[in-house]
Design a protein that fits this description.
Elements lengths: L15 H5 L27 E2 L9 E6 L7 H16 L4 E6 L7 H10 L4 E5 L3 H5 L15 H8 L2 H12 L3 E15 L14 E4 L3 H9 L3 E4 L5 H6 L5 E5 H6 L8 E3 L5 E8 L1 H7 L3 H32 L3 E3 L4 H7 L1 H8 L4 H9 L4
Parallel strand pairs: 2-3, 2-4, 6-7, 9-11
Antiparallel strand pairs: 1-3, 4-10, 5-8, 5-9, 5-10
Helix pairs in contact: 2-11, 7-13
Length: 360
């Protein structure tokens, strides 16, 4: 698969001027584990990864995420754990709490805000958007051409400014790890155009943005908690869902879905958050931990790229039909109103700046 295949984007849409002039409010509802990081552990289970020499550290920081052990969240967290130990000569240790053992993404954000949790990594456009509304930028369909466009934006001034907006809301925005480009799966038929979505029940995160998105495509949006998604797909409660390829793989959705369409409709970054209390506790080691976040970003991007190649091969071998030839222009046109609604909560200046990073 050509992971950097260019998709049609709003940069070429004729209605762009209307979208950029939109203003107003668009409130996200709270989503349970809305970042689709992984299957939360059963109540009372523990999933803690402590470095072997944690007892020698001057500072131990707890990092929580909602992902399963083989999900991209945890892969990044474990690499970060090693980077921090190296960057600080063992003075700082990272204790990883995975599988939502400390709560879902919304709860983790609240704990970072009140200082009871040092760090978390969460999807940008779900629960975090309830606190930092500008993160709804990542819910705009087809605003990004490909991963290169995304990384150019995240690594530039706009990415820094959006982390600053996290800071304006009482947390420290450390950087961006990977969730990935999102694609649609289903059990009924190949999806090449919006017409193929008509009447399909598609699981969505419980958010007005995602419900509007699927309604615009003629599908029936059905909110389902992430920990119930596999069984809902298996039992036919919903026909399909949408997630990045590594999530489709790590959660075994391909076992109960016959078709994967590479729609690439949105890209979701994982935002790395730290509490202000933890920043103060780190003192001079804060810069070392920041460097570890950035090193993990580079590692994670390379890792996700390889993971996507591996996933495509693995699920094709399992008998799943992969549809690469998708009419992105038709999907773009069908979701034009959604882009306007989402942009109600995202300053048009942010959208403008994203488009400036698109290749002509």
């Amino acid at each position: 698969m050509n992971k950097h295949k260019r998709f049609v984007t709003i940069a070429g849409a004729t209605g762009l001027a209307v979208m950029l002039s939109a203003c107003g409010g668009f409130d996200d509802e709270e989503a349970d584990n809305g970042g689709d990081g992984g299957d939360p552990a059963e109540e009372g289970d523990e999933d803690v990864d402590e470095p072997e020499d944690a007892g020698d550290a001057e500072v131990t920081l707890r990092l929580a995420h909602s992902a399963s052990e083989d999900h991209q969240y945890n892969i990044a967290a474990e690499h970060f754990q090693e980077e921090v130990a190296e960057q600080t000569d063992g003075d700082v240790a990272i204790e990883i709490h995975g599988n939502a053992t400390l709560g879902g993404e919304g709860e983790a954000i609240e704990q970072v805000l009140d200082g009871s949790l040092a760090m978390t990594t969460v999807a940008a456009d779900s629960n975090l958007a309830n606190t930092v509304s500008e993160m709804n930028l990542f819910g705009i369909p087809y605003i990004f051409e490909d991963e290169d466009h995304v990384y150019d934006m995240l690594d530039g001034d706009l990415g820094d400014d959006m982390l600053g907006m996290v800071g304006d809301n009482g947390m420290v925005g450390m950087g961006y790890w990977e969730v990935g480009m999102r694609h649609i799966t289903n059990s009924q038929q190949e999806i090449e155009s919006p017409e193929d979505m008509d009447g399909l029940s598609i699981r969505v995160q419980p958010s007005p943005v995602w419900e509007a998105h699927m309604n615009a495509l003629g599908a029936s949006p059905t909110p389902v908690d992430f920990d119930e998604l596999y069984s809902s797909l298996d039992q036919g409660v919903v026909d399909g869902q949408e997630n990045p390829l590594p999530t489709i793989d790590s959660m075994n959705f391909y076992e109960v879905q016959e078709y994967v369409s590479l729609t690439g409709h949105t890209y979701t970054p994982a935002v790395v958050l730290m509490s202000e209390d933890a920043q103060d506790e780190l003192g001079e080691h804060f810069e070392d931990v920041q460097a570890a976040v950035e090193a993990t970003t580079e590692f994670h991007r390379d890792e996700l790229s390889q993971m996507e190649d591996d996933v495509i091969e693995r699920i094709e071998d399992a008998g799943v039909t992969i549809t690469e030839e998708v009419d992105h222009e038709a999907f773009l046109e069908a979701t034009e109103d959604v882009r306007e609604e989402v942009s109600d909560d995202v300053p048009s200046e942010l959208v403008d700046r994203v488009l400036e990073h698109a290749d002509d």
